[in-house]
Amino acid sequence: MKFGTKAIHAGVHPDPTTGAVMTPIYQTSTYAQESPGVHKGYEYARTQNPTRSVLEENLAALENGRFGIAFSSGLAAMDAVLKLLQPGDEIIATNDLYGGSYRLMTKIYEKYGIQTHFVAMGDPEQVREKINPRTKLFWIETPTNPMLQVIDLTTIIGMAQENQIMTCVDNTFASPYLQNPLDFGASIVLHSATKYLGGHSDLVLGALVVNDEKLAEQLHFIQNAAGAVPGPMDCFLCLRGIKTLHIRVERACKNAKKIARFLQQHPKVKNVYYPGFKDHPGHAIAKQQMRHYGAMVSFDLLEDSFEHAKKVLSATHLFTLAESLGGVESLIGHPATMTHASIPKADRLKVGLTDSLIRLSVGIEDVDDLINDLDQAFTTI
Ligand SMILES: *Cc1c(COP(=O)(O)O)cnc(C)c1O
After folding, report:
1. Residues 122, 69: one domain?
2. Is 6 in the active site?
3. What is the pLDDT of residues 39-82, one digit of tens each?
4. How many domains does the chain have?
5. What are 154-175's pLDDT values in tens digits?
6. pLDDT of the residue at 356
7. Distance 82 CA to ligand 1 centre (A)
8. Is the pLDDT of residue 97 over 90?
9. From the CB of 204, is ligand 1 less than 6 Å away?
């Protein structure tokens, strides 16, 4: 099956009890047993829920994987991955990554004796330098958030495999429609389904997809033992969102390309970060490992100040000033004070995350209206 067909059909079958075409919301916490231990495969809803099972099967298919495991949020999914590690183990992670991922590694897992080295993964030598016998996991985000650097999956995953190190790719920014890290040999793919998969800014959910049966077993064990599972309503909403994933992402990418070009020629804009530009350092790799260049665009202002950024951020009408991304509606954000506020200033400046950096999540509105909206916002500075 090709992608669009999988989005709609994978794992989805008419409900066995009624024939309902849409997957029902099994809003139940427990299931009747015929006699002790004799049941239809469902005992208690933390462990299994039919709505969740359909979503998990669908997610696995979208990522060309065998096992999907859903969680109550993207960070809960990440937490489950980190729980695979032991005190003394080390992680090597992208230095330009989701602020919440950075916070989980540094503020929670460091105190349990798991240390993370943040490196510029665009330069494989920096990764190699940090590898030692304690290195157990590579944490890869590509394209990165918010600087939209592209990490070469073939090279980095190859290096991990040589050293028997597990890899987890946070594929949230690309969505499974644009990029499938398991095809490159990644051990685990992570999604904040809150973003493109859900796609309508109406749910919080996370997912992991893996191929290895033993790894799937361990993660299912953690899912049940720690209990950060999504509710059936959110699973239903996510399944519903996924049915249009390919159409939405296709359109959003098209819009983003036009907006990136508009920003690039605007006199008040300094740098535009968008992997679709031919002179973007990751362009060739993006072309190789992604279907399109994504719908996230970051830029900073010629006059780099919080004040100027604040004016632009407060003046858009169609771009809503909000955290998150990947919904049908366009959003505008200020990483330094919003998504990346937990990253120290010196660290963020190192990756180019300046005071005036603005991040756009381009939605699927008519692009001319979006461009006009930005254009009028620039008149305030
Ligand atoms: C939002 C996000 C997360 C965290 O997901 P939640 O669903 O908010 O917990 C992780 N990684 C990336 C890249 C994100 O954008």
Report:
1. yes
2. no
3. 999 999 999 999 999 999 999 999 999 999 999 999 999 999 99
4. 2
5. 999 999 999 999 999 999 999 9
6. 97
7. 15
8. no
9. yes
The ligand 1 atom nearest the CA atom of 97: 13
As beta bridge partners, residue 167 has 138
Give me the domain span that covers residue 33: 3-242
The CA 37 to ligand 1 mean position distance, Å, reads: 38
Helical segments of the chain, H only: 3-9, 50-62, 74-82, 99-103, 124-130, 153-162, 175-178, 213-226, 232-242, 245-264, 283-289, 306-315, 345-350, 367-378
Q: Which atom of ligand 1 is nearest to the CA of 76?
A: 9
Pocket test for ligand 1, best of 172, 178, 234 (most atoms within 8 A of CB): 172
Burial of 32 from C-beta contacts in 10 A (0-12 / 13-18 / 19+): exposed
Residue 201 beta carbon below 6 angstroms from any ligand 1 atom: no
Q: Check: CB of residue 304 under 8 Å from CB of residue 270.
A: yes
195 is known as an active-site residue: yes
Q: Is 240 a residue of the active site?
A: no
The domain that holds 312 is classified in CATH as 3.90.1150.10
